[in-house]
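User: Can you help me understand a structure? I only have the sequence.
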Amino acid sequence: MTILSVNPRSPLPLHVQAEHELRKLIGAARYRHGELLPDELTLAATLGVSRGTVRTAILRLVSEGLIERRPGVGTRVAPKTAESSVAAWRSLTREMAAKGIKVETYALKTQKRPAPRAAARALVVDPGTPIYRLDRLRGWRGMPVLHSRSWFHPRLGLKGNEDFTGPLYEVIQAATGVVADGATEELLAVAAEAKMAGLLRVRAGAPLLLRRHVVFDRGRRPFEYAEVHYVSDRYTLTIDLARGDR
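Assistant: Let's start by predicting it. Here is the structure, written out as tokens:
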């Protein structure tokens, strides 16, 4: 049980002390696992301070993204967003597993479709060439986080019955012998169109991160073009940069 208290004789302002106590409180397992925090009046009575003092402390933690408030629901510890890095490109499944997150597949469809212009250009095939397209809706803890659409070069010889619930590039290597050796990335901020919003359970027009990439084999030949939409408040992408003029 977390014991909360403030010292009226301390030189620290009461709202700062209350903030420190709330930081201890949200570290408790019960709250980290989703239980609602006590309301403002209860916290104020426990600490022996005014409701305004508690509210100031709460708003500070909200501004840092540590807790979230929902009208009519209450206040709880904010769920951590998954973080990815472009410094070490690899399968999302493996990358998230390294962070203790199990990727779940909620929808999957493989079909042969005419290559659209963007995919044809990336894969160096003629527009309209029949190629396999893979659509996957994935996330974790029961919440969709991303929708990916991949187009594959016909030289892979995919059959369309591969088990794409596993790590994508391991599946491709096992099925075709082709090894993913590198990729180029393009990142854009976009608004969710109605259909994508429905899939990702966000409102139409909500901000999404669009990540386009082309994956190459060891001969630097492109074999996958993908467009991946991420819910921006459920996923964080970090980029490591170094000066090139040193």
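Now, to help you interpret it: The chain is about 25% helix and 30% strand. The helical segments are 14-25, 29-32, 40-47, 51-63, 92-97, 117-123, 168-176, 194-200. Let me know which part you'd like to focus on.
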